[in-house]
Amino acid sequence: MAYLNLYRDKLKSNFEFLKKEFNTYEVSWGVVSKILCGNRMYLQELIDMGAREIHDSRISNLAKVKELNPDVQTVYIKPPSKRNLGDVVRYADVSLNSELNTIRWISEEAVKQNKSHKIIIMVETGDLREGVMGDHLLDFYAKVFDLPNLEIIGLGTNLNCLNGVLPSADKLIQLSLYKQIIELKFNKKIPWVSAGTSVTIPLMLRKQLPKGVNHFRIGETLYFGVDLVEEKTIEGMHDNVFELFAEIIEMQEKPLLPTGTLASNPQGEILEIDESLYGKSSYRAILDLGLLDVDPKYLLPDDGAFEILGASSDMIIINLGENPKKYKVGDLIKFQLKYMGALAILNSSYIEKRVV
């Protein structure tokens, strides 16, 4: 059976590294937990290591956080849908919003539940995902800042999440200026400029973060130690918090090319034949996980001596060549994971999750 390891000491080390850097720059931050897909054991690890603000895009995951520790501040990080506003107010202390009617509905729901709910207004800064256009922001704020049972605690933005637009000092300064203009015009304080995600960390480490930016929402760099701009591991951080282990369930020497009439496979692909491979063979292994669990393109083999040939719904096929390491049925193959691979594995109910 395939399984995923989370290494507690490496996650804790990454957490402490980031905590120290954010303290240096007097920036508050929360941990984005959506990659954990609501796994209670892993959420508990975050809480135990000191996370006191947890962000997620699934309200059911925030409900689990509140069950584990009601004192953790929970943040819902995508525009809420009308049909789940009751749970958003119930389980999220803060939500990110960019729709006027949604904020009004949240206010009504908060009154109904006799709760106070905090709002971060998301602002469009170029990546064209969620966010109010800047030239509409003052009018937008005017219509929501005094709604009952709501507190507007921040302006936020997302970059690099859809079209790959990178954060820059200019973009973040503009967001800080919006905050200053609103505070002057409405005589209201807005505590947060929540402009930082993992892709913004390199700006901070290069001492290029505008002073007005004072809140980050961090996921990928915590779990993978990655500088998302230069696509390399940040010195002092770990890139192998997660490791996937898959068992070999068949090992045979077989031809390199299939025989018979070729049609498209279940993924709609048609194999291109390399005629130079006719008559050649290699050792092929089948692993006990497949496309139901993860797309193989997000797997990073720990052993460079083999290649991934393809996958079906519940099996991955690898080419071991002459099998110099003498792999056999029952042996484990180890993979590191790209972010989207880890997300898929953690969302799979068929993969055992462990803490080491």
Automatic annotation (TrEMBL):
Coiled coil: none
InterPro entries for the chain: Ala_racemase, Ala_racemase_N, PLP-binding_barrel
Keywords, in A-Z order: Isomerase, Pyridoxal phosphate
Domain Alanine racemase N-terminal, residue spans: 9-224
Cofactor: pyridoxal 5'-phosphate
GO cellular component, one term: cytosol
Gene3D superfamilies: Alanine racemase (3.20.20.10)
Pfam family, one: Ala_racemase_N
Single annotated GO MF: alanine racemase activity
Keyword Isomerase recorded: yes
Annotated protein name in UniProt: Alanine racemase domain protein
Organism per entry: Cyclobacterium marinum (strain ATCC 25205 / DSM 745 / LMG 13164 / NCIMB 1802) (Flectobacillus marinus)
